[in-house]
Design a protein that fits this description.
metal-binding; manganese ion binding; Xaa-Pro aminopeptidase; 430 residues; Creatine Amidinohydrolase; three-stranded antiparallel β-sheet; alpha+beta; 18 strands; 34% helix; Creatine Amidinohydrolase, Chain A, domain 1; six-stranded mixed β-sheet; Creatinase/aminopeptidase-like
Length: 430
């Protein structure tokens, strides 16, 4: 792994939080992700399933975590199963975790080879009444591929029909949403790497630059600072491309007078950052660009102030909508009649700002976390309003990542990344 070792105390704490909420005489199992094929002998780069990483720190394929707080044998209350290495694997892929290394990474004392799983699992299931299955219940999930976790659940239901089933997801939604200090530190590193990339491209951008050239500059800076690369597929949208919310082609040349919207950020140790900045290709905002940009920035600043303990996510978005409506009227994009005659289910402001303002961020860019209960301290949210004006060939979005504090305004993990018009123009024209 490119990242520095993580203190396994983080994973010890995470497991304890999970096990404290398990039913008596229950087992929870978490599987690593598959390595997905592309074709012929090619595969996609391995990405660890975030739940098993959150609970164990194990960043290796073919890994299983088993938690059984009530196991009669105390040594079997936490077990990590890892792939046994051999000389052939070591030569072709590199050595895998030894048992001692697996303990050092996870803080779990009992380590078995993966080949021992079925036998040990059967023995422990004779002591258990309930098994927790780890299903993906994120509100934005749209998975069609059968995962390693899915296959395990299917097999387990056939082999152990007399056991009760429970869901790991509600517990994970609750505990993963509130970050430990170590997690916030890792996310700050990801944000700091993102800052380095952004400062690099401010001196690089000019009329005639291609979107993919900007992508390459970011990637260079990210990887040289111990990131695997982008936390999510990068959006680099010049001119009218910025009006496509999930624009991914990154193949257009920026022209003099274009704004360039960049929604991209670095990962670090599997933790995401999530940044959006919009800058003028020629290094100088026009008067109209300044008007729209300043409106978006004001909405972002006001929205950020509302991210405090006790805030309800859905109500927060309604309040942000009111602020945006006022700004759009000020820009001449809406008038009072538009607002008076709006459809309550699709307010007038949605014509120019059609997406949400904030989502949880952490081990996933759109992270697990409770959304229907009051916000809590140490939750980390994005703040990302935007105004999109196809008729003017312009879209502007601004985004930072912030930590909710027990008292006071959120702590901005991207506080050092330039966002003010004057600073951006100064850096682009050095």
């Amino acid at each position: 792994m490119k990242y520095s070792p993580i203190d396994n105390n983080l994973f010890v704490k995470n497991r304890k939080k999970f096990m404290d909420q398990m039913k008596p005489k229950s087992i929870a199992v978490f599987n690593s992700n598959d390595i997905y094929p592309i074709g012929a002998d090619s595969t996609m780069p391995f990405e660890q399933a975030r739940d098993i990483f959150y609970l164990s720190g194990a960043d290796q394929e073919e890994t299983i975590l088993l938690l059984f707080p009530d196991a009669m044998d105390k040594k079997k209350r936490e077990i990590l199963f890892v792939r046994e290495t051999n000389d052939h694997i070591a030569v072709w892929e590199g050595a895998k975790l030894t048992k001692d290394q697996a303990t050092a990474v996870s803080g779990i004392e009992t380590i078995y080879w993966l080949t021992d799983f079925d036998k040990i699992f059967f023995d422990l299931m004779t002591e258990a009444d309930t098994i927790y299955f780890n299903t993906n219940e994120h509100y934005r999930q749209a998975v069609e591929t059968q995962t390693r976790e899915d296959r395990f659940i299917e097999k387990c239901k056939k082999q152990y029909p007399a056991h009760q089933w429970a869901k790991s997801n509600p517990i994970l939604q609750q505990i993963r949403g509130v970050k430990e200090p170590e997690e916030i530190t890792l996310m700050q590193i990801a944000c700091d790497i993102t800052e380095k990339g952004f400062r690099r491209i401010l001196e690089f951008i000019k009329p005639g630059v291609w979107e993919y050239e900007i992508e390459a500059e970011f990637l260079h800076e990210f990887v040289r600072n111990r990131s695997k690369g982008f936390a999510y597929a990068p959006i680099i949208a010049a001119g009218a491309n910025a009006n496509v919310l999930h624009y991914l082609e990154n193949n257009r040349q920026a022209k003099d007078g274009d704004m360039i919207l960049m929604d991209l950020a670095a990962e670090y140790a599997n933790y995401s950052s999530d940044l959006t900045r919009t800058v003028p290709a020629n290094g100088k905002f026009s008067d109209r660009q300044k008007q729209v940009y300043s409106a978006v920035l004001r909405v972002k600043n006001e929205a950020t102030k509302m991210l405090v303990p006790g805030t309800i996510w859905a109500e927060y978005h309604k309040e942000v909508g009111k602020i945006m409506t006022s700004e759009l009227i000020g820009l001449g994009l809406l008038d009072k009649a538009d607002v008076q005659n709006e459809n309550p289910d699709w307010p007038a402001y949605k014509k120019y700002f059609m997406h949400g303002t904030s989502h949880h961020i952490g081990l996933n860019t759109h992270d697990y976390g409770e959304l229907k209960t009051p916000m809590k301290a140490n939750m980390v949210f994005t703040v990302e309003p935007g105004i999109y004006i196809p008729a003017e060939g312009m879209g502007i979005r601004l985004e930072d990542d912030v930590v909710i504090q027990e008292k006071g305004e959120p702590f901005n993990l991207m506080r050092n990344i330039p966002i003010e018009i004057e600073e951006i123009e100064e850096l682009m024209n050095k």
